[in-house]
UniProtKB/TrEMBL annotation:
<feature type="transmembrane region" description="Helical">
    <location>
        <begin position="429"/>
        <end position="445"/>
    </location>
</feature>
<feature type="domain" description="SSD">
    <location>
        <begin position="259"/>
        <end position="376"/>
    </location>
</feature>
<feature type="transmembrane region" description="Helical">
    <location>
        <begin position="221"/>
        <end position="244"/>
    </location>
</feature>
<feature type="transmembrane region" description="Helical">
    <location>
        <begin position="647"/>
        <end position="668"/>
    </location>
</feature>
<dbReference type="GO" id="GO:0005886">
    <property type="term" value="C:plasma membrane"/>
</dbReference>
<feature type="transmembrane region" description="Helical">
    <location>
        <begin position="721"/>
        <end position="738"/>
    </location>
</feature>
<keyword id="KW-0472">Membrane</keyword>
<dbReference type="InterPro" id="IPR000731">
    <property type="entry name" value="SSD"/>
</dbReference>
<dbReference type="Pfam" id="PF03176">
    <property type="entry name" value="MMPL"/>
</dbReference>
<feature type="transmembrane region" description="Helical">
    <location>
        <begin position="28"/>
        <end position="49"/>
    </location>
</feature>
<feature type="transmembrane region" description="Helical">
    <location>
        <begin position="354"/>
        <end position="377"/>
    </location>
</feature>
<keyword id="KW-1133">Transmembrane helix</keyword>
<feature type="transmembrane region" description="Helical">
    <location>
        <begin position="251"/>
        <end position="271"/>
    </location>
</feature>
<dbReference type="InterPro" id="IPR004869">
    <property type="entry name" value="MMPL_dom"/>
</dbReference>
<protein>
    <submittedName>
        <fullName>RND superfamily transporter containing 2 sterol-sensing 5TM boxes</fullName>
    </submittedName>
</protein>
<feature type="transmembrane region" description="Helical">
    <location>
        <begin position="325"/>
        <end position="348"/>
    </location>
</feature>
<feature type="transmembrane region" description="Helical">
    <location>
        <begin position="277"/>
        <end position="295"/>
    </location>
</feature>
Length: 812
């Protein structure tokens, strides 16, 4: 065993030497090619700006559910692409909607709308009135006689198009496959059409509906992202002035990290990673993380220059010593983020991709551009100083002030950190007992934290589009649906239509949350005096009489039918968990009232899709957290080949994971697609602090300090640097907390708290865990050495005793 350890220690040392040699060569390359590096960096900015033009904003169903899943295939391919019709709703209100002047304006609006590209139809009271007038009087126009007009409205216009005397609804229908860009263009044209239709002055016309809400939300999110990035920059300026004042060009790290963000935008466009409500929050996170890389390189090269090294040697030494350390920190952070890729929620996968790309871009910008710029600025400053000295020296020599040999007294922060470390080492069992108890309680409480996937709750509640959508729901009572896709070999089979009619009637009568149903069976029944025909020929005859638009709404080809179950405003009344339970009830009913042989029925719809997200967030987030723990542990073990060094940082961050869940429960916060990533984020960000503390601890031990002395020294000397790094990350996340979008602000608030907890764990939990386990290992090694020595002595005694008993031994 000892031979194996010695072998691996030699290999590890050799690998470290190789890595440092590689970075030393890289340092020589950077120092020798400063101008080409700057030119390449500027060229990449232009390339990145071009790539950023390809970034698209997405907020549809495919950002919640994987496109390859059967659930998405049923919804997107079978329903949306075949039957799905999205409707922009135009509300006409605040006047008598049966007034001829208002109806004439609706008719003008409908004529203009039908000519728009992407619009497949318009449902309105005027179209119904004209169709009815054609049947009654043979004239496809609005009647001029008001009494006749009132009679047609009373007898033919459904309540869904004219809910009351002061409200009329017009449904502008688009194909389910219409892109977001096409929807936005149609909305712009509809606004123009409303103004050109010349509604009477007293009437209010509102363009709303789910598509209008989603487009408005996308635009608001893009504007919010710009504000968040600007606020992050301001906050970073503040923190750099507060804690980074001991170096020249203190704002340089901010410029470098923003360069890395530009590169990230470019890569995002070229790799076709969309902007979603989750991925947009990656940029403040990257500012918080990336600026730490820039600070590390900036601080080290200034330190080397202050030692009196030549600028060339300072560049090489900075990259040789700081490059590997920062790279290790990046790898550990990336391993924590990598677990997010296992999520079944696409927007979380995109968030992970963006984080992984972003930290790599920030590292490369800091390594190549940051060091090069500092080197160049120092060179220009040296030239100016030489010119200034020659101009004003007049041959006089200046004596140099002798440096003080007295030790600098520790400041308040250093004394506080030293006292904290001393206290934790004096009471390790008490601290660890409290930490384990609160962590365990937090893990239990975490199972009670709710899940929020209602996209309407993510946006600002004063968003005009959301208010309009709520107003529409108040008028209609809600228009949520379950969509049942029915596959058959014969769409004219009377037995199948009879089953559809009976099943729909059963659901409406037996389930209080199912308010109505519509299908080809209901259309055929209404055309045939309220009953389903007995023969296939009669059904086909009715199909022939049916308008093509009505037929396409409920039937596709000769093998697919659609049954819609209206569940009103189920999202508001039941919530996602209630909808999930209702879906289970309907599925059970389809088993109990099975369709005819050879027929299959599949329930789908947007509400059905979002229930899948609940399961993904509930189980997926836990899996991602523990996978992240395993990846960070494996990465540390591979890098250090030391079980203790791999285990202690993970134990420290695991405490934070438990505390985070308990804190969310106490604050009454729900998990969202963003906060579900917190476990992996804590591991990725927080492990860096523990690793830095651990590196300094073992460095002090190598100098001969005891574990307690080494930890006290590490906590005092590197503590300020870790707190500075933590503050930069905190300030990056703080920008999220002021977002108008609740999904982003809640993520920012809890993440700021969690990063604070990670810093707390680094200074309070890490020291007793590390020292206790290290002392335990040292005692085991000492006992094993003592035991091995006793065996060796015993064997030697036996050997001597044997020789002494032999004849002639005494004479020897």
């Amino acid at each position: 065993m000892r031979r194996w350890l010695r072998k691996n220690v030699r290999i590890t040392h050799k690998e470290v030497v190789i890595i440092k040699n590689l970075f030393e060569k890289l340092g020589v390359f950077i120092e020798s090619n400063t101008i080409p590096i700057i030119l390449v960096a500027l060229l990449l900015v232009l390339v990145s700006v071009q790539g950023a033009q390809n970034i698209t904003m997405e907020s549809g169903t495919d950002t919640f559910v994987e496109k390859t899943s059967q659930l998405y295939q049923d919804f997107d391919h079978l329903y949306m692409n075949i039957f799905g019709i999205e409707a922009i709703v135009v509300i006409v209100e605040d006047g008598q909607v049966s007034d001829p002047a208002a109806l004439q304006a609706m008719d003008r609006f409908e004529h203009m709308t039908l000519s728009l590209p992407g619009v497949v139809g318009v449902q309105s009271a005027t179209s119904v009135i004209k169709d009815a007038n054609y049947k009654v009087n043979g004239e496809a126009a609005l009647p001029e006689d008001e009494a006749e007009l009132a009679a047609l409205i009373r007898d033919y216009v459904p309540e869904g198009l004219m809910p009351d005397a002061t409200h009329a609804l017009m449904y502008v229908e688009m194909a389910g496959s219409t892109s977001d860009e096409q929807k936005q263009e149609i909305l712009r044209e509809l606004e123009v059409s409303v103004s050109m239709a010349e509604f009477p002055p007293d009437y209010n016309v509102v363009v709303t509906g789910e598509p209008a809400f989603m487009v408005s939300m996308n635009n608001a999110m893009m504007s919010s992202m710009a504000v968040l990035l600007g606020l992050s920059v301001i906050l970073m300026v503040v923190v750099l002035y507060l804690v980074f004042g001991h170096v020249r060009w203190r704002l340089m790290p901010l410029a470098i990290v923003l360069l890395g963000i530009i590169y990230t935008f470019g890569a995002m466009g070229y790799l076709e990673i969309p902007m979603t409500m989750v991925s947009m929050a990656a940029f403040p996170v990257l500012i918080g993380l990336g600026i730490d890389y820039a600070i590390q390189f900036h601080n080290r090269i200034e330190e080397e220059l202050e030692r009196g090294e030549s600028p060339e040697a300072a560049v090489v030494d900075t990259i040789k010593h700081t490059g590997p350390a920062v790279l290790i920190a990046l790898i550990i952070t990336a391993l924590g983020f990598f677990s997010l890729l296992t999520s079944s929620v696409p927007m979380i996968q995109d968030f992970a991709k963006l984080l992984l790309i972003g930290i790599a871009m920030c590292f490369l910008a800091s390594l190549f551009v940051g060091v090069t710029v500092i080197y160049g600025l120092n060179h220009m400053q040296s030239i100016r100083k030489e010119k200034f000295a020659k101009l004003f020296s007049n041959g006089k020599s200046k004596s140099k002030a002798s440096s003080s040999t007295q030790d600098t007294k520790p400041d308040l922060m250093e004394r506080l950190l030293g006292s904290t470390t001393t206290f934790t080492l004096k009471h390790p069992f008490l601290i660890l007992f409290i930490a384990l108890l609160t962590c365990s309680a937090g893990l239990v409480a975490d199972t009670q934290v709710g899940i929020q996937t209602d996209t309407e709750s993510f946006v600002p509640q004063d968003l005009p589009a959301l208010i309009d959508l709520g107003h529409l729901s108040d008028i209609t009572g809600g228009e949520d649906q379950f969509n049942i896709i029915i596959k058959t070999n014969n769409v004219a089979d009377p037995e199948l239509l009879q089953w559809m009619d009976e099943f729909a009637e059963h659901e409406v009568d037996s389930r209080s949350n199912i308010l109505g149903a519509e299908s080809m069976a209901s259309v055929i029944s209404s055309m045939n005096g309220g009953v389903i025909p007995d023969s296939e020929a009669e059904v086909n005859a009715l199909y022939d009489q049916m308008p093509a638009q009505q037929k396409e709404r409920f039937m596709y080809g000769g093998n697919m039918l659609l049954l819609n179950l209206n569940i009103g405003d189920a999202m508001g009344s039941l919530g996602m968990e209630g909808i999930e339970a209702l879906i289970d009830v309907v599925e059970d009913d389809m088993v109990w009232m099975a369709p005819p042989p050879g027929v299959s029925a599949t329930i789908t719809g947007s509400n059905v899709v979002f229930t899948e997200v609940i399961g993904a967030l509930t189980s997926g987030r836990v899996f991602m957290t523990y996978l992240g723990l395993g990846l960070v542990f494996g990465g540390l073990l591979l890098i250090y080949r030391d079980l203790l060094k791999a285990l202690v940082p993970v134990i420290t961050m695991f405490m934070v994971v438990g505390w985070s869940g308990g804190l969310m429960y106490l604050l009454g916060m729900d998990y969202t697609p963003m906060t579900a990533t917190l476990g992996a984020l804590i591991l990725g960000v927080g492990s860096e602090y523990a690793v830095l503390m651990m590196e300094r601890y073992f460095e002090e031990k190598e100098k001969g300090a005891t574990p307690e002395e080494a930890m006290s020294e590490a906590g005092t000397k590197i503590g300020k640097a870790i707190i500075t790094s933590g503050l930069t990350t905190l300030f990056g996340f703080c920008a999220l907390a002021v977002s108008d979008f609740d999904i982003i602000s809640s993520f920012g608030i809890i993440t700021v708290i969690d990063v604070g907890l990670a810093l707390f764990a680094t200074f309070v939990i890490f020291p007793p865990v590390m020292v206790s386990l290290d002392n335990f290992r040292e005692k085991r090694k000492a006992a094993k050495t003592l035991l091995d020595g006793s065996f060796e002595n015993e064997g030697l005694d036996r050997e001597i005793g044997t020789y002494g008993n032999e004849p002639g031994a005494d004479a020897f």
